[in-house]
Amino acid sequence: MDWGCEHVKAVATGSNASHFVRDYAKIVLFLLKTKKTPNQAPHNTLIDMAFKKTDIKLGIKPSLDPLACVYCYSCSEFVDGQELEKRRLKVLCRWRGLKMAPGSTNPRTNGTGTNGTGTNGTNGTNGTHTPPSSFTQPSISSTRGLRGLVNMGATCFMSVIVQTLIHNPLIRNDFLAQNHSLGLCALKRAIADGTITYSDFCDYYEELPETIQRESRDLPLSTLITWANATLSPNPNNCIACALDDCFSKFYASATVQGYGPVSLMISSWNINRQLAGYSQQDAHEFWQFLVNELHGSSLVRVEEGLDEDRGASSDIPVQFKNTWDSISESGSCSDTSDCTCISHRTFGGTLQSTATCNGCSHTSHTYDPLMDLSLQIPLKGQASLSSCLDKYTAPEQMEYFCENCKSHESVSKTLALKKPPVVLSFQLKRFQHTGSSSSKIDTHVEFPLYLDMSPYTCSQESGLVYELYAVVCHHGSLNTGHYTCMVKGRDMHWYNFDDVTITRVDVQQVLAARAYLLFYIMHKI
Length: 526
Known about the structure:
four-stranded antiparallel β-sheet
């Protein structure tokens, strides 16, 4: 019997089995009645079992449906087995007045429906004219992505960065278009490491009923992903992009607008970067860089040469399946980040040109570096503006240099300018300074505009390169005991302040008065 892990099985089938079943049913019923499914972080809802000496506690696993999972402290993760699911569905069916089909794990109606021509309120075919009683239409607020994030223990740094991505139109559209999904990601990785091969899929396809084969041949990608989901049991805790995909579905496809705990994102971050593990405060800018790098990396899963040579495909397998398999295997090849087509580089990627002019012979040389964001120095005291910080960043810098043209050591003048401006321009205002063994925070207010003309800071200096502000991240308090909030321009053109689960509407003056740490601008005309 599948209980999810050996520790849960030991409790569920041991001397405390009756307590386990009873308490599990109570938790499921409690969640159904209080509708807390995806809204709270697990550590806020963990409830001790009757047998307190075990390492098992009950908690909520984020899901669109009410779902009580067991959190095993020995495994340090949520576990969900078939036996748990059977007991959950039993409680669910009793609560909704449904019956279970014999030997099935799916609830069905009791046959008393009155709408349509079928006995269950259907139209006599595989469909229905009336939505199920559990169906709720996403609210207007939900489809706008206005939803707070639960602070799961000093995770405000994570929340503000997620909000900036959720409301970034390029990132949002990419995820909502299903360009990255859990099943597709698992399939890519399994192909890359040789866990599955094309011949494995052929064996599966040949065993399908002929009617399903006919339906599947026109949907090769969907069929491959369905097979991967069933074969590989994808885990969102192993991939940042999968965890973010889960966040986007909860923000834009959920009927609730209450606070959401991004558990998968937190766990996957911990699994990938151990420095993020635990409940200590982290730097929001470093976490942003981490997410952007992981989104880039998730697109580079590539099969090794010769790894999938056993393509003994049957002639009965439609050619479109092999073509789709090959396209998945070959996707993500990118040796030069300037040509990368991943969502990170399409959104934030640009090119910075460094120009060195010899003061002796006036010879000029250029070097080019990839750009994802700009980190700007700010003064310790007094007034400052984003433009003045940019002026200082791009101002000529005198340095010693060996000139290849005049073959002498001369002072050179070095300047920086944007060669290829990114679609979304991100700024870090360096508020945290570290000198020797001490660290401090700079509280200088930096003025920033709603619309930023970046033309003076480009190589061509052609007019018309205007960016529009859409997100501001602020750090409040001291260096070690601070708190992050953010303000984001919503799809309704209003500004909103996000403070963990609390969302308040703010006016433009409040936005401009903020002591910004991170600023996000998007091209006004793309």
